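Predict structure. Input: Dipeptide epimerase, 369 residues.
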Amino acid sequence: MKIEAIHIHAVHLPLYSPFIVSYGTYHHMPTIIVKIDTDEGITGYGEALPDEYVTGESFESTFYLLKHTLAPLLIGENPMEFEKIHDLMNRTVYGVPAAKAALDIACFDAAGKKLGQPIYQLIGGRYHEKFPITHVLSIKEPQEMAEEAATMIEKGYNSFKMKVGTAVQMDVERIQAVRERVGKDIAIRVDVNQGWKNSAASLVAMRSLKDLNIDWVEQPVMADDIDSMVEIKSKTDIPVMIDEGMKGPRELLEIIQKRAADKVNIKLMKCGGILPAVKLAYQAEMAGIECQVGSMVESSIGSAAGFHVAFSKKNITSVELTGPLKFSRDIGNLRYDVPFIQLNEEPGLGVEVDQETLEELTQYKDIVR
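Output follows.
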């Protein structure tokens, strides 16, 4: 099987409401959808959702890098040769993990369809039957976040990821308000997205949270400040998770050596796709570290790819892949049964793409042959 053509779509996915994190507000999610055509008539879909603040890539740069560099590189290659494809991409361009993830996911989708198997069967087989889904609360006033949480409990959710990271005292008030509103038995995870900057501010905040039964605090300090994560972990009883600070195996090795986190957040857009994510999960497993598969708020395509990784690995114990639930229109049909996700047994990603919706949401596109 050989790749004959790669279609590249620059897409704006409409959100029900703005998504607000410590470093920005999104009124829609800009993402790149790719489709590979093969000489056997099998197609595969992938997605790149770049983020200048996290992956160092922009929407525009990703589209043109795929068009002019990475897509031409893969024409004529066998999409089932995952290691070779990554080696080709890595020898040609340094970094750009979201762009590489798009092609990696599309190749896995095509390979699964070729073999008649879901992707999770290609990377270790299914381990988990289902995962609970966590609702993400974007940054708002404390009472607004509390009311949203209460509404989501009525819809069946029993865990929340709170986006904070603007000012320590206000963030503490946000978390206190949600805890008071939902009661003591609902799981709350706090994602700071580097917003507390350093260990001093983070420890001030975490001392105020010690009696609120927080599952974990995610990435309170700047991404490259592994030493501050070490200090925080040594001085608090609240578990800490690294997200932006763990992009690939080099960072994970340092995290393991310094015992800098209780848990790491693997994102396909940060590490370059399914194959690199699987390798990170194995690396963490050997060190006895639990993992989460997280989201950059991808469509059904990128979210399904993350779920396939999560369902196949024993030490992946949580997921946060709720992008499709935030979109008023999505290009795929990934199914949620709130508060759980249960993957189907269809080959490849198991996602059907609505071509009409894809075309309507496309801002510009191209084909590489």
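The chain has a mean pLDDT of 97.
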